[in-house]
Input
Amino acid sequence: MAVTRSDASSDHSSILIGLGGILLLLLARHVFSRIQEERKIRSLGAHAKTINSWVPFGLGFVARTVHDQRRHDLLAGWYRIFADRSAVHPFTREIRIVGNRLVLTADEENIKAILATQFHDYGKGAQFNAEWHDFLGDSIFTTDGEQWHASRQLIRPQFIKDRVSDLAVFEKHLEILLPMLGGNKNDHTVDAMDLFFKFTLDASTAFLLGHSVNSLENPQDRFSDAFATVQSVQSTIARVGPLNRFVPRKAFYESLNVMEQFIQPFIEQTLQLTPDELEKKSKSDEGYNFLYALASFTRDRTVLRDQLTAVLLAGRDTTACTLSWLFSEISRRPDIVAKLRREIEEHVGMDNKPTYTHLKNMRYLTHVINETLRLYPIVPFNVRVSLKDTTLPRGGGPDGTQPIGIP
Output
């Protein structure tokens, strides 16, 4: 069979026409969707002021955010977004990233609405779950609605006063940490933050699994290195939004596998215990750990793995970051150190181990910790999506006094 030049040209034209038609349909669909969204926003409230991006599709904002993250300057970078104080309520802005609308707010009334008065209007959403699922699965930090409530009911009883006031699990690792903070005879300079992260990882794994990774004594511990790698890559995945598919994940998945190899044997050992044995261990002070308590309520391996990883993330980072900032501040304030020392001598003494009651009664220590958390919040930002058509109380319009429509 012979094909003439005119036939080939005709086929080529047909393909181009077909592709052009598909592109026009996609464009029409996008325009129609944007018109519908705009109508909803206007019916609910107004837009916030727009963040300018020097690259189309908001990619300049993404690039700047990744740059700030790598320089450990993310919070300051976001604060610069609100530098224009011309509005009555200036701490809310919005931008579109590859077509997706993103609203950033540091306004106390908006945060109150998201976390309290309009709590059921907002959640983590399907995209957040998808972005974090490989790391945290369907844990309390990645779910909404009934699934979130079930996670909360599962975890909350494990943090009753009798458990969190048991300081023995911290004491063992603290005795290893303290000499290290003094450096060695050749070098008195130490990376305190690195030591604090290892300390909290050791204490957290001991509390959760009944077995510590002992990273303070084993600097080359594979689990702690893997955990740090997963967190670093996950942080980038979460920051770049719809562009996260381009984030390299080879080291991420290799490190997740190292974590799984460490955690899964403890889950298997725990599930070999009978329900009666688990109940006895979970109620006993001797040999208690978080995994035993969870396994008393569920024997689902995936649920146990997801909740353990989530609580490990929370327990390690929050305490380590707070300790790092606290020591950074008081290292420049000998007057505060002197007051803390006097309070410790008064309530505990220099030869006794502190108890929960001691800690509770040391008001100045509590104030120092609270001020550290105020200046250096452990969770300086959070992510929510609207679960239904709703609003934010203010930040919309030219002066920021109107509600913002959030369809």
About this structure: The first helix runs from residue 5 to 44. DSSP finds 17 helices and seven strands in the chain. The two ends are 58 Å apart (CA to CA).
